[in-house]
Amino acid sequence: xKKLVQALAAVLIVSFALLYIVSGLxxxxxxTSGNTLTIFNxxxxxxxDLVEKFEQETGIKVIYExxxxxxxxxxxxxxxxxxxxxxxxxxxxxxxxxxxxxLLPVDHSKIPNLKYIDQRFMDLPFxxxxxxxxxxxxxTVGILYNTDILGxxxxxxxxDLWDPELKNQILLIDGAREVMGMGLNSLHYSLNxxxxxxxxxxxxxxxxxxxxxxxxxxxxxxxxxxxxEAGIGVVWSGTAQELMWEKDNLEYVLPEEGxxxxxxxxxxxxxxxxxxxxxxxxxxxxDPENAAQNTEYVGYSTPNKEALKYMDEETISDERFYPDxxxxxxxxxxxxxxxRMLAYYNExxxxxxxxxx
Length: 357
Prior knowledge:
By secondary structure, the chain is an alpha/beta fold. The chain has helices at 2-28, 48-58, 70-79, 91-99, 147-150, 176-186, 196-207, 220-226, 237-246, 275-285, 288-298, 313-316, 325-328, 339-356; strands spanning 36-42, 61-67, 86-87, 103-104, 134-146, 170-173, 213-217, 232-236, 250-253, 259-266, 268-269, 331-332. Helix 6 crosses helix 14 (339-356) and helix 7 (196-207) packs parallel to helix 14.
């Protein structure tokens, strides 16, 4: 027993020594909770030069991690393995995170640059009063098509995608809400529809699209469209704009039946270690010149009205990316469907993907 106690004591001593060494190394490199900001964001969703500028101006070290879906982001925050100081979820995810008590309130007094946000993007139903979230980017889901491959064919509607001439030409986003929403909108149903008969009808219609689908992919959709590997991609507006800057043979359209209008906002998870730095970063990114630079890099639409003064007039007058009131009226924001209904959407989407195979 004495030897066992001595062995355990030795293990503890070594463990504490290693912990001390790691802590010392982290501190020497600037990785202490007081001067470190851990951000959880979508991939390629910020200009890295701005991260470096923030570090230089504040002395705060930024640790940056990415996710590829709201669901993956929420799961990781719920598990609590990493204490993120800022996350950037979409509107329906913010509503869900509020319900599950995963967020800290935002102190508006620490974000004076909030005054530059267009009031159209404040006080929205998913977060009244912006108690927990600060606008970051907004955009739409639409159809990007290659004029070299499609020739004179014009795409104006979701239903155009069912044209037999488009066999093996369509790339879809690997997202249940986006794809099920496309199916629902093509039938003139709401993309927040909870009627199970409507949902089955939408899924069956999507099944009939299978011959035209080349692949259901994630971020690879960017590379595939850039390399002219498909005639059509159902994409987010920022992806479309970025590709259209590089290629003259691409066009983007918001379908006449309607589509998704989404908002990504910055939030502070309840497990944050440095909410003070989180507020500093939010204020920094809302500075109009910084917001303009970030928008030019990312390609999505900015909610920062003052930033528009620093941007190219051709960009901000393009109604495909800054839609007018008539088009905006046909767009819908994703609502929080609740766990059971969201699970049903995911189930139908999985069945559709299996049908594709």
